[in-house]
Write a structure and sequence with these properties.
Length: 307
């Protein structure tokens, strides 16, 4: 599988997927000290754990989550995920940045008028990682589903991590269309001295982070131009589909409502159909991005995890 990147002159560069993290591996966190299992079926490790965390909630209106469905108050969780793996710890998104808890309007601006964050400073992803024994320097990868403001809390917080995102999402975040601009907080992702690796949309679809089938990245544009979801396959719990914002709620999953914030309705619908097939083929547990009712049913970190 190839990773498609672009140099400073816009020329396409293709690199082999095996080079991810290799070129600058000395800067990455080392593999954590874990007992190494024998693996189960298809190379899945027996010592992999998925933790589901939350950085508070967003108080909003139903119409901003389920398009055109009313002005009622609606409060949604802000999930993020940590995966412990023998080859390295992986943070997915990290939720809201800690600055949101300290000065939400100062950090998010007018976005708080539509999505009002309720978050304690202790909810930040770094402190929550510590609650399950993972120090900042122990995180090997920070993987972004996309770069909207409630998903960028981990960027730049883990000093030895390589950051992975879709190239088109990264470029769009610096120059979004007017209707999407409030969703991107440049201070979250435009940080110095970050180690970035970019994926290339359909060219790198189903990218396997460790080459063992545990973490696969699925290109699911629509909510944002470079959105991606994740199929995490665990030895005991089996496949878990982290749809993130490709599926806001079960209403979106069941074709009853589009997400309230979308860049392409057509792509959003096609991405849900794509995830339906993946979930059916894998018999996966589906985790939507912001469904308050379904979120209550999952095992929550730090007291519980999926393995």
């Amino acid at each position: 599988m190839k990773i498609v990147e672009f140099d400073g002159r816009g020329q396409k560069i293709e690199t082999d997927s095996r080079s991810v993290g290799a070129a600058r591996s000395s800067h990455l966190a080392p593999p954590p000290t874990l007992s190494v299992g024998r693996g189960l079926g298809r190379g899945v490790r027996s010592d992999v754990q998925l933790y589901m965390f939350q950085t508070g909630t967003l108080r909003t209106k139903t119409k901003y989550i389920k398009m055109n469905q009313g002005e009622d108050d609606f409060e949604i969780p802000v999930p993020w995920y940590l995966i412990k793996h023998p080859k390295g710890n992986v943070v997915i998104d990290g939720g809201n940045a800690v600055e949101v808890a300290l000065d939400k309007r100062g950090h998010w601006g007018a976005a708080v008028d539509a999505y009002d964050p309720v978050m304690d400073a202790r909810d930040n992803c770094v402190d929550q990682c510590r609650s399950v024994g993972v120090r900042p320097e122990d995180v090997r990868y920070v993987v972004q589903s996309h770069l909207h403001l409630d998903h960028t809390g981990a960027i730049g917080r883990f000093p030895r991590a390589e950051h992975i995102v879709q190239r088109m999402e990264y470029e769009y975040a610096f120059n979004p269309d007017w209707f999407a601009a409030a969703g991107y907080i440049r201070a979250d992702f435009d940080r110095p001295n970050l180690n970035w690796k970019f994926l290339g949309g359909e060219y790198t679809d189903n990218f396997d982070l460790f080459g063992d089938g545990v973490i696969r990245m699925i290109f699911t544009p629509g909510h944002s131009p470079g959105h991606q979801s994740f199929l995490v396959t665990l030895p005991n719990s089996g496949p878990i589909l982290l749809a993130v914002d490709a599926v806001y709620t079960l209403d979106h999953w069941n074709d009853k409502a589009l997400p309230g914030f979308v860049c392409s309705a057509v792509d959003a619908v096609h991405s849900v159909a794509k995830l339906h097939k993946i979930a059916a083929d894998a018999n996966a547990l589906v985790v939507p991005g912001h469904d308050p009712d379904l979120w209550r049913t999952f095992r929550k970190a730090p007291s519980a995890f999926y393995d």
